[in-house]
Amino acid sequence: MFRSVNPATGEEIATYSELDADALEAKLATAASAYRHWRATSLEERTALLARIGDAYEANRERLARMATLEMGKTFDSALAEIDKCTAAFRLYAKDGPAMLAPRRQALGGGGTAELHWLPIGPVLAIMPWNFPFWQAVRFISPAIMAGNVGLLKHASIVQGVATLLEEMVTEAGAPEGLFQNLAVKSSRVAEIIADDRIAAVTLTGSEGAGASVAEAAGRALKKLVLELGGSDPFIVMPSADLDEAARQAVKARVQNSGQSCICAKRMIVHAEIYDAFMDRFTAGMKAVRAGDPFDKGSDMGPLSSFEQRDTVLQQLKQAKSLGATLLVGGETLDGPGAYLSAGILTDVPLDSPLKHEEIFGPIAMVFRAGDIDEAIRIANDIPFGLGSSVWTNDPTEQQRFVREVEAGMTAVNQMLASAPEAPFGGIKRSGYGRELGPFGMHEFMNLKSVLHVAGAPLGQLTNALD
Questions:
Q1: Are 130 and 73 in contact (CB under 8 A)?
Q2: What is the phi-psi region of residue 289: left when phi exceeds 0, alpha when psi lies from -120 to 50, beta otherwise?
């Protein structure tokens, strides 16, 4: 049994039953059957369905956003923005998907040509977290449908209402039975699902522990795997930056989604020359952040996703202070019901602190002083993670160095890092491997088939033959 609880009030919203063995088997069989049909559909059929799903998201925008806010506490405005991004993803693949799948011709040195074709591989299992409950799933669903694959979602236990709506939107858009299904199962059953021969590949967004467990199961089954395991992203500010804008964006980058985003800026690394000036602005901005009712437009952030998550962050703060860090502002619980925590700043964090090996998944920023660009890059890279980064400088030479030398899958220059349907998303080091979104995300779960021939039949003829 899964319980959906409103973290703003602590009240139960609904309960959901877990799939028993027979129900799970039925869903796997349905997925396999759906794949045999869907892989043979035309690109026109796939794009038409994606467009209809995008329309369904737009038509149900407020209902979907409300469920996200109720189940995990994000502000209603940010939930609406999340649904809008989902709509954009479906429409992107509906518009540009065929071009992403167009065969490519490669000349061979010994004569003749190779034609490269992207073909589907089968049912893909997605194991997704609660922090962006619609978007995390949609950035997997939309390219999977375009690719000719089918999807199975094992969503986080606390957002089963969202999981139900995710399946409903695809079904209501006219998808064939089994094209996308929610699997209401606990994490303990994931390994057996991965081992099933009907599962072709796996994608996971979650913790390092979850990633290691799923990677072990996928490795034993020799299944393709994409992992996005979070990080502790640096936000580097240099003397040539616009300090007002950098500080304003630093606040937003740290407290968005109540600090519960894999690509939140978690470590502010500030050049010593402008450290005090930046801190004056940043501290004032963090103090002004209002945590409150997520349906109240005056709230900058809602509660954390659960009381358990809030307690985890409080324990990290306690440990940091015991090791010499200073809690400059915030980091306090709020009176009344709800898993609320005020926006906070940690300074004087020892560079050998255990926190550099952890991700603070809450609205707490760590601030570090760097004497020069070399030290800033050294601090940025001296962690096991490598997901995103944001660098603030108007010096072109510094920009080039940060792009080359900051160890991350993504770098934003003079802006807050954010995901977009068009751009590859993913990290390096212990932040995982593989990419989501854009053509590269779709290609992760496709068979790149090389078709070799001498004379060079027209691409269209071979494409039809392969379809």
A1: no
A2: beta
Nearest to 427 by CA among 217, 188, 226, 247: 226
Q: What would the pLDDT profile of 39-81 be if each residue is shown by its tens digit?
A: 999 999 999 999 999 999 999 999 999 999 999 999 999 999 9
Q: Which residues pair with 159 in a beta bridge?
A: none
Computed on alpha carbons and rounded to an integer, the radius of gyration of the chain in Å comes to 23
CA 261 to chain centre: 8
Report the pLDDT value the prediction gives residue 110, as an integer from 0 to 100.
Answer: 82
Which of the following is catalytic: 262, 358, 398, 436? 262
Instruction: State the pLDDT at residue 466.
Output: 43
Query: Who's near 226: CB < 8 A, 6+ residues apart?
Result: 201, 202, 203, 204, 426, 432, 433, 434, 435, 436, 444, 445
Angle among Cα 390, 344, 268 to the nearest 5 degrees reads: 25
Q: Which domains does the chain have, with CATH numbers?
A: 2-229+431-466 (3.40.605.10), 233-413 (3.40.309.10)
Three-class SS state of 383: coil
SS3 174: coil
- How far apart, in whole angstroms, are the C-alpha atoms of residue 72 and residue 189? 23
Distances (CA, A) of 413 to 231, 269, 322, 394: 18, 14, 35, 9
In angstroms, the CA 142 to CA 163 distance is 15
- Set 167, 208, 228, 444: catalytic member: 228
Residues 409, 429: contact at Cβ < 8 Å?
A: no
Q: What is the mean pLDDT of residues 222-248?
A: 97
The question of whether 262 is a catalytic residue gets the answer yes
Nearest-angstrom CA–CA distance, 312 and 308 = 6
45 is an active site residue:
no
Q: What are phi and psi of 241, to 5 degrees?
A: -70, 155
Q: Report which DSSP code applies to 255.
A: H
- Single out the residue of 251, 306, 316 nearest to residue 281, CA to CA: 251
* Single pTM value for the model: 0.95
324 vs 276, 289, 302, 317, 347, CA distance in Å? 20, 26, 29, 11, 9
* Residue 351 three-state SS: coil
User: What is the per-residue pLDDT across 313-346, written as a single tens digit (0 to 9) for each?
Assistant: 999 999 999 999 999 999 999 988 999 999 999 9
Alpha helices in 232-372 (DSSP H): 243-255, 275-288, 307-322
What amino acid is encoded at 198 in this protein? R
Token pair recorded at residue 464: 């039809």
**Closest to 232 measured CA to CA, from 212, 214, 207:** 207
